[in-house]
Amino acid sequence: MFTTIDMHRDQAFLDRRVSDTDNRLIRGLNGDEKFAREFRRQRVRRKVNKGEVLFLEGDRAAFYYIVLSGRIRLYKCDDSMKEVTIYKVHPGQGCMLSAFTIQNGTTYPVNAVADSDTVLICISAEVFRDWIEKYDTWRSYVFELMSGNLASILYNLETIAFKRLDQQIARLLLRNLLPNQEFVQMTHSDIARELGTAREVVSRALKQLERAELIRLFRGRIQIFDPNDLQTY
């Protein structure tokens, strides 16, 4: 059981992590002090709870999102409401589809939800477009963001299209493994939702990975023995 002191320590750690990410973003603005001041003035911090919807397919973009802590999951649904994860936005990263949708005046082609309790920086669509016109620093940031996120999307689509399910699961586990950790906090249902398949099918594939002595299954979490072995599976 967590004590009040534990909860306060956890909150203090989270606050420091948010602040560190925020400071790295500011330092990454190529020394453009004028734009850094404008960025600090216009940004809005927003806390969202796990499961909270940020936008739905067909919505117009009201904000550009940067993740300070937590994670955003972008996904598609078919007619039966089965979900397939397209990609995730992690701390220090911006949402490429928000940028693309704002810049092109189109609607979102996917849905987005907070994959955990998350702290965001929100930049209004109007300010985002104004910065594109006024600041080279912001334009460079947005172009780099799009190229980096596109590589991630293509990687995920390649995995879904061409890999066996057990290999898809192996890649998914590695993407969700934090540095210097050996456990991934995911259930069989979480994996099934990410990959757009049935829980029973996922459970069989996980058992196959466990028999190969690559992972060990626990309730609500999965132990990875050697990431390199899982990578080459």
Structural account:
The chain is α+β, with helices and mostly antiparallel strands and 233 residues long. The chain has two domains: 4-162, Jelly Rolls, CATH 2.60.120; 165-231, Winged helix-like DNA-binding domain superfamily/Winged helix DNA-binding domain (Arc Repressor Mutant, subunit A, Orthogonal Bundle). Helices cover 50% and strands 21% of the residues. It is built from nine helices and ten strands. The strands form three sheets. It has a four-stranded antiparallel beta sheet with strand order 2-6-4-5. A three-stranded antiparallel beta sheet has the order 1-7-3. A hairpin with a 5-residue loop joins strand 4 (72-77) and strand 5. Helix 7 (188-195) crosses helix 8 (199-211). The longest helix is centred in the middle third of the chain and has 27 residues, at 136-162. The protein is elongated. The protein starts with a helix and ends with a helix. Mean pLDDT is 84; it is low at 1-14.
Write a short abstract of this structure.
With 233 residues, this protein is of the alpha+beta class. Helices cover 50% and strands 21% of the residues. The protein starts with a helix and ends with a helix.
Which features would summarize this protein structure in a list?
Jelly Rolls; three-stranded antiparallel beta sheet; 233 residues; four-stranded antiparallel beta sheet; alpha+beta; 2 domains; 21% strand; Arc Repressor Mutant, subunit A
Share of residues in helices: 40-55%
- Low-confidence parts: 1-14
What integer value in Å does the Rg equal? 19 Å
Q: What's the architecture of the largest domain in CATH terms?
A: Sandwich
Determine the CATH topology of the largest domain. Answer: Jelly Rolls
Query: Count the strands?
Result: 10
Q: What do the pLDDT scores average to?
A: 84
Taken together, the total number of domains comes to 2
Gross morphology: elongated
Number of helix segments? 9
- How much of the residues is beta strand, in percent? 15-25%
Q: Can you summarize the main beta sheet?
A: 4 strands, antiparallel
Q: Calculate the terminal CA-CA distance, rounded to whole Å.
A: 38 Å
Tell me the name of the CATH homologous superfamily of the largest domain: Jelly Rolls
Query: Structural class, from helix and strand content?
Result: alpha+beta
Query: What order do the strands of the largest sheet run in, or round the barrel if closed?
Result: 2-6-4-5
Q: Output the helix-strand order.
A: HHEEEEEHEEHHHEHHEEH
* CATH class division of the largest domain: Mainly Beta
